[in-house]
Amino acid sequence: MASPLSTTSERRLLRLAPPQILVLGFASIILIGTMLLMLPVSNTTGTSLNFMDALFTATSATCVTGLVVVDTGTFFSQFGQIVIMVLIQIGGLGFMTMATLFALVLKRKISLRDRLILQEAMNQGSMEGIVRLIRRVLIYSLVIEGMAAVLLTFRFVFDMPFGRALYFGIFHAVSMFNNAGFDLFGEYRSLTGYVNDPLVNIVVMLLIISGGIGFIVMADLMEYRHKRRLSLHSKVVLSMTAALILTGTLVIFIFEFSNPRTLGSLNFGGKLLSAFFQSVTPRTAGANTLDIAGLRQASQFFIVILMFIGASPGSTGGGIKTTTFTIMIGAVVAMLRGREDIVLFRYRLAQERIFKALTVTLLALLLIVSVSMVLSTTEDRNFLMILFETTSAFATVGLSMGLTPELSTIGKILICVTMFAGRLGLLTLAYALGPKQGKPLYKYPEGKMIIG
User: Fold this and answer.
1) Cα–Cα distance for residue pair 296/230, rounded to 1 Å
2) Would you say 54 and 34 are in contact if contact means Cβ atoms under 8 Å apart?
3) Could you read off the pLDDT of 243-266 as tens digits, one per residue?
4) CA–CA separation, 222 vs 204, rounded Å?
5) On the chain, which terminus has fewer CB atoms closer than 10 Å, C or N?
6) Helix, strand, coil share (%) of the chain residues, nearest 5
7) What is the Cβ-side half-sphere exposure of residue 421, based on CA atoms within 13 angstroms?
8) Looking at the predicted structure, is the pLDDT value of residue 20 above 80?
9) How far apart are CA 148 and CA 231, in angstroms?
10) 3-class SS at 343?
11) Is 0.70 topped by the overall pTM?
């Protein structure tokens, strides 16, 4: 028989809105991860990691960011690294997705409330087919990570013993597919040692892109041979993703072509491969084959823009999302052409979608500007470095110019909050703090203002 205390807790949980449950769920996972990383067995020193650094690492892993205050490959023991990898997997797929996996394994029924939370977690418009989508998410994730782990192991085995190569292959496959950016190569090197390696570069880029386009698009692509058509969402995501990657490659290639600290020392093929990789990774992955601090300021600022846009809805990535950016561009084009509607691929967008895109963009800008201003007073660094780190945290990217390991306690707290807000989504966080109101039953008279 259930105790009165447990019954009361269950009733309180049932009264929470789905966004509130998501916030509490992610916060609980971060807290558990923090406690585990504080254990002496989690690091190579044999002593307890201080709470702030453990919290930062757990937040970065759960929010699939990749910013680190201590080096993952040298500071943490294998146990600590496995804890980080599990946090990345749970954070990337979502704790409700993992809970659904256990429910499906145990053949438990998925309740209506569970479906509502899954709908919120996957950013879906309805509950229809949500459990089927979750099954596909799990299958796609395991298959892609498994294939990538085999390929990476095959490459790493030339540099290290087989057991270590297998471990590295699994860890980096999980980290890169979930767009986390954690690596085990030590001394914050990321993948700079493989800058000219086509296999590692191509496998990692495919992991980043497949994790960043979103599970909805992946399911759409898998069914294309039967349906022979793609949804509007998939068309927008794929076209904008391709446009951003190609534009980023061209810009970085031009800006860094003669830079001796980045592309200048590579042959033409190496320059092109590295520029392409560095254009893909700001899509919230965080891995890098070039020294980020060595990039020219123009390239660094352009990467800030790519990070701000981020990945796509329903993915393992962050940012304002490619669809939001597309809608904002569509609004500008429509206004310049004197049109009232935004039309994409012969579909008109509802006004509600435009307002949502505008809200997400402005909230993201407000958060990044506010955090950057505060960090400018607490951290003695140039503003571009602070802006870069803040945007990287919000977009859950993990690329760093070297500021994160030197952050003050206040700076670490601010970046933790930024990563948390970026992973959950600003609208989800806003609804959790104050649930949205229903539509009003009346309208005010229309007013006129002069714009521009």
Assistant:
1) 39
2) yes
3) 999 999 999 999 999 999 999 889
4) 21
5) C
6) 65, 0, 35
7) 25
8) no
9) 28
10) strand
11) yes
